[in-house]
Amino acid sequence: MAVQESKLASILIRSTLKKVVELQQHVFDNLWKTAIPAEQRIKELQGAAEDSGSKESH
Asked: pLDDT 10s per residue in the chain (58 long)?
């Protein structure tokens, strides 16, 4: 199944159909607007792991 999924992704990425390109641009733009720096996300995840670890010890 993974091979079929990767082929599909490849087809979509290489598409020159205007509607597909517009959709991909829209998805990219939305992801870009909501993105946060990796360092910030790592700190958030580490903080969540520390919080859950302290709850388990009580």
From this structure: 456 666 666 665 677 789 988 998 999 999 999 999 999 999 999 998 888 776 655 5
**Alpha-carbon separation of residue 10 from 13, 15, 51, 52 (angstroms):** 5, 9, 40, 39
Measured between alpha carbons, how far is 49 from 42 in angstroms, rounded to an integer?
A: 10
pTM for the full predicted model: 0.49
What are the tokens at 36?
């946060």
Domain span including residue 20: 2-56
Into how many domains does the chain fold? 1
